[in-house]
Design the sequence.
């Protein structure tokens, strides 16, 4: 990773961490565990890649940073809720996440389900609040786009396909669709949210979506490679799980060499979409290249 | 129940059923089970009391019926998602709902969790869509109010308290707060949504919230009485469960006689709040009285 990108990621992650902390409830009543589980699920880790996409695309349109930070938090709430629910015993049954016990292990299953529900709901609360943007049309566009990206035709649909696909032999088209829904849709929302906040013209918004689709696919291929090649200590969660479950992945279909080449190509293609922008987009270009070079 | 109220409830329920059906996806791909579970959770039953509150309060302000119906569906999506998640083994562990197997019994736990997630997300998608209201400020106000009513400071918080309270001896103040969050907040949103759609002045909106709070509390007391006194065949779900779990309820604290008297008082008080309105509010007045007279 370039020093500039590393510094930018660290700086944004710190701002996001502080903002998430301020948003999350901290009650001491009978619902104290719910609040604690929401905080546990969101705070203290994660690359904050989606928030970074929001902040960096918002910067392209000189959007007020405080507004962009709210959208970044909303997306991170959705991302964190999806991890909490995906880790549940009835789903992927994971005990470890970012090197720590998963939420249902640290608390219990009921609290994990409810904490996920509350985080998802919080995302929409944050977006719809007048502080997110003075123009209510922007707020309601953000809500609509996030809902479409994260519901049955987006992230949740992708997770269902992922579960249904265990033991099935998906082809490359099906795997691509699965990932486009499961991880791609939310990444695409993150990348276009800066354009929504900045009221950019439609073609600019679409360019950022195209960037995000290539980036998301490259990111997933890199993730699949890490699952096959990384150790769990290095990665901070269990590895080799896809193979153990007979899950088709980009790597199982293409083989590691072709998957690596394809990911590199997609990362370059993602960066190419940004030709529309000047040096302000350099962090996004560097992010695309880092996505496929990372080890965890 | 008066004939007029019965006819109005039936007519609204039919419109809501058709609208829910039109909103819900019907795919045949790998995510077919998700779609089927969402439909199973929402269609074919339920009193549709919350949608009725939306439609009737919207009528007070001559709101376009198609717009109100969309908000009614959004609230019903949230209500249905909450039932799906509450019924899960890790939560209330119920096998029966409205006389049918619960979603995780008819499908599986993973699909039930995801169907709930997708329904919650769908609610915000529907509210934020331009067809719900031409004014984006109204749409974003609806989203914000629904998120506040259904998240950690509303319905989800109430469910967490409910789980934490098993075996605890709550006092009447704690039980009242629990119910205000768990069921009252969403009912209050339903009752004020007509005023939001109709851009009614703040004091009118607050009057409807006051109506809803009394109605919601009366409704819950009646529910507690039905749980103690009804048979499961009559009610369509397991009864006597609160007692079996040592859960404090209005009935366990007040005793059935005082709970019944208190519920009747609240129902009258709810109706009294509607003095602001003319005969257009008669269905709402009748609803308040029926709430405490019903047997299921």
Sequence:
């Amino acid at each position: 990773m370039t020093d500039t990108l590393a510094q930018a990621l660290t700086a944004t992650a710190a701002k996001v961490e502080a903002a998430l902390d301020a948003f999350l409830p901290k009650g001491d009543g009978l619902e104290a565990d719910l609040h604690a589980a929401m905080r546990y699920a969101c705070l203290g880790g994660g690359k904050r890649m989606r928030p970074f996409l929001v902040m960096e695309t918002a910067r392209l349109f000189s959007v007020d940073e405080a507004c962009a930070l709210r959208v970044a938090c909303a997306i991170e709430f959705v991302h964190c809720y999806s991890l909490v629910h995906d880790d549940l015993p009835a789903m992927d049954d994971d005990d470890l996440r970012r090197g720590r016990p998963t939420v249902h292990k640290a608390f219990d299953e009921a609290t994990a389900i409810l904490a996920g529900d509350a985080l998802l709901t919080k995302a929409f609360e944050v977006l719809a609040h007048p502080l997110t943007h003075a123009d209510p049309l922007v707020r309601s566009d953000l809500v609509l786009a996030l809902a479409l990206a994260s519901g049955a035709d987006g992230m949740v649909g992708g997770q269902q396909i992922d579960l249904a696909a265990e033991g099935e032999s998906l082809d490359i088209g099906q795997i691509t669709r699965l990932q486009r829904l499961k991880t791609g849709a939310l990444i695409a929302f993150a990348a276009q949210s800066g354009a929504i906040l900045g009221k950019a013209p439609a073609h600019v918004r679409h360019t950022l979506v195209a960037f995000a689709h290539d980036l998301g696919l490259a990111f997933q291929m890199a993730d699949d490679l890490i699952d096959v090649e990384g150790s769990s200590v290095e990665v901070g969660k269990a590895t080799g799980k896809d193979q153990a479950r007979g899950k088709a992945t980009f790597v199982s279909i293409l083989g590691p060499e072709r998957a690596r080449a394809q990911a590199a190509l997609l990362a370059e293609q993602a960066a190419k979409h940004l030709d529309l922008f000047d040096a302000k987009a350099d962090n996004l270009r560097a992010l695309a290249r880092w996505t496929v070079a990372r080890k965890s």
